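### Sample
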Amino acid sequence: MTSFEEAETEETVTCLHMTFYHPCQDDKMMFRCLNFCKREQVRADEMAKFGRDSSICHYNLMDTRVSRVQFSLQFYRKLNSSECCFEIKNMSKRTKLMVDQTELGYLNKIDLPWKCIISFGEYRILAEIQEGESVDYFETHLHLAAVPILQERCLPSLQPTPESGVSPSFFPSQGKSPIEIDENE
């Protein structure tokens, strides 16, 4: 056997891609302490903390409007499953944290969707989970957005237009219920 054949099988690693945006990032440089474009390993038993206190948080945001610890991410494996997930927890007493359309108050936590926008104040973070197999650690890969990160809008459901070309929503229903008519009548 060759050394290649005897080598251990490589595990894929779960990676949390986070793209950061703030409208004043060029002027205030609040992201200057973040390590962009380089993957970093985080042990599975550690909590990834984001905030302005460098003695507590590994991911520092240099802004006095950010809490000492703004939010934390905990890596975990679901019960009776091999699926690994992240749990996000709001650690700020002053600022609500939004995860897509869900508002988290102080110490509230939820599972992080596989793709979502985390927001607080004027900060927007696009988070995307790339699944992996390793349970010993995960990786973070931070990016800086050049343009605003926009929340995907839910479009209203489009109602079909009848063959007459006139939409029934143009006329008030006047309390009448719809009448079913057979095509042959």
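Confidence is low (pLDDT under 50) at residues 153-161, 167-175. This sample (TRAF-interacting protein with FHA domain-containing protein A) is used throughout the tutorial notebook.
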